[in-house]
Amino acid sequence: MSNIFEFEGIVGMGYSQPDLLLDRSKIKIPSKLKRNNLPRLPLLSEPEVVRHYTWLSTRNFGIDTGFYPLGSCTMKHNPRVNEVIAAMPGITELHPLQKESHQQGLFAIMFEMQEMLGICAGMDSVSLQPVAGAQGEFTAIRCIQEYHKSIGEAHRNKVIVPDSAHGTNPASAAMCGYDIIEIPSAEDGLLDLDALKAVVGDDTAAMMITNPNTLGIFEHEISKAAEIVHSAGGQMYYDGANFNAILGKTTPGLMGFDAVHYNLHKTFSQPHGGGGPGSGPIGVKEHLAKFLPSPIITRRSREESDDLGVNGEWWYLLEEPVESIGKVQQWMGNSGAVVRSWAFYRRYGFQLEKMSEHAVLNANYLRYKIMNPSDEMLAKIPIMPADGSKSKFCKHEFTLSATPLKEDSGITAMDLAKGLLDKGYMAPTVYFPLVVPECLMIEPTETESKKTLDTFASRFHEVLTEDYDTLHKAPVTTHVGRVDEVKAARNLILRFDFED
Question: What burial letters (b/e) apply to 167-199, b meaning 16+ CB within 10 Å?
């Protein structure tokens, strides 16, 4: 049974409604709001419903069921202790409209998260409100936009992005009304400073970039780029998607960035995938802080809060930045994600540098294992590194190009990805970044063991030896075979089509 509505139960059974607390005769419902027919609810008993959804769950792939090397998405293990803490009654049973005195524990967690995120990124103030990385981008760019207006430079209407940028960067800036200026990468995959100098000017509002960049290479001249943009009066925005590679080693603040978004559902272990829930807080330097979304959690000491009747050492308050851009999300954003990430930070805060070191080590090890097969025949298979770098090392992720393989035998990056599904692995990212033809983008994260990486490399090599016909039919072992993805995206089926 693939659809819960297809179960042939008994009409009128399988569900129940509680008895009304009011007399039916006293309930007046306008006739235009009354149903002509009973709702078509599924005709299943409770155990049948449980079995249906359990059956569906076995058809999903996730980080709990296998290695998930999705480049640029940092699909790492989510410690279960985070779930235990986030499910505590003192957190789950709070309502955001309760008195501040009832929410001091949750406010304390959020305040600590603001402080910790600010420190690890070298920022002065943090808002936890955005609930996705893209919303964090939009929010930070709006703060930058209001900053320019406040100093009489509202004419700045251009945002610069490199050609390897995440697609959400230009989209977020465009949503704020900016024109997008794309600059090409240099031959080594790094930012081309000459190309940057050629486009900055008095109309530059900001530059958006991540570091390491989307090719997995550290932009070692990022401070020079910041000087170029700042000298023209623009601001620097850091996309936090690749933050997992630098924690404890450096900060966006030291690189010269003015604003940053964090992906709690990537770097800080909030479960990721299935469409959410995400969290994309932003951090900003002091000159942008007054524009942050409202509210921000602040605190006062007992001495400062006598009028509030404080019993503990601190009293936590909701405050509105003086020139806030307003709200971008209800209440304080996705509080469950914040609590899970706070638990992760509390447990591993002093080990974040080791976390990044292991992420980089795993990426370089897996890259080497894939690119240097021991079998002589495999060594002749045309697959090439395509991170643009002449260096032997990458950071937390790396890219490969199947272009030589496609030219030699017609096998594409998509064929390789589908072949990996038949080996029991979630496929890596394909065809991104766009600057790499026939791209496969792989990020192992720090939570995978050497054995897992060795086995994956071995299975990857097995896929490389498959013939065209076999790979072009892949996957054949999954519940669903290769689909027409364009048709699926353009012809959405979002509801069950009942036969009347």
Answer: ebbbebbeebebeebebebeeebbbbeebbbeb
Residue 24 to residue 262: CA distance in whole angstroms: 52
Q: Is the domain of 337 the same as that of 360?
A: no
Q: What is the CATH number of the domain that holds 425?
A: 3.90.1150.10
- The bridge status of strand 384-385 relative to strand 179-183 is unpaired
- Is 371 found in the same domain as 304? no
Please give the pLDDT value at position 387.
52
Q: Is residue 119 part of a domain?
A: yes
Count CB-CB contacts under 10 A for residue 7: 15
Helices (H), 247-402: 252-255, 335-348, 352-371, 376-379
Q: Is residue 68 part of a domain?
A: no
**How much is the mean pLDDT over the chain?**
90
pLDDT at 269: 93
Question: 201 to each of 116, 157, 159, how far by Cα in Å?
Answer: 35, 11, 11
Supply 61's token pair: 């792939």
- Helix 168-175, helix 133-150: angle, nearest 10: 40
Task: Count structural domains, the chain.
Answer: 3
Range of the domain at 417: 352-487
Q: Are 284 and 123 in contact (CB under 8 A)?
A: yes
CB 383 within 8 A of CB 406: no
Residue 114: its H or E element: helix 104-121
Residue 51 and residue 93 share a domain: no
pLDDT at 341 over 50: yes
Q: Is residue 432 part of a domain?
A: yes
DSSP string over 129-169: ---SHHHHHHHHHHHHHHHHHHTT-TT--EEEEETTS-THH
State which of 351, 378, 412 marks the end of a domain: 351
As a whole number of angstroms, the distance between CA 45 and CA 13 comes to: 8
Ordered strands of the 429-430 beta sheet: 384-385, 398-401, 439-442, 429-430
Confidence (pTM): 0.90
C-alpha 485 chain-centroid distance? 22
258 and 181 part of one domain: yes
On whether both 194 and 157 belong to a single domain, the answer is: yes
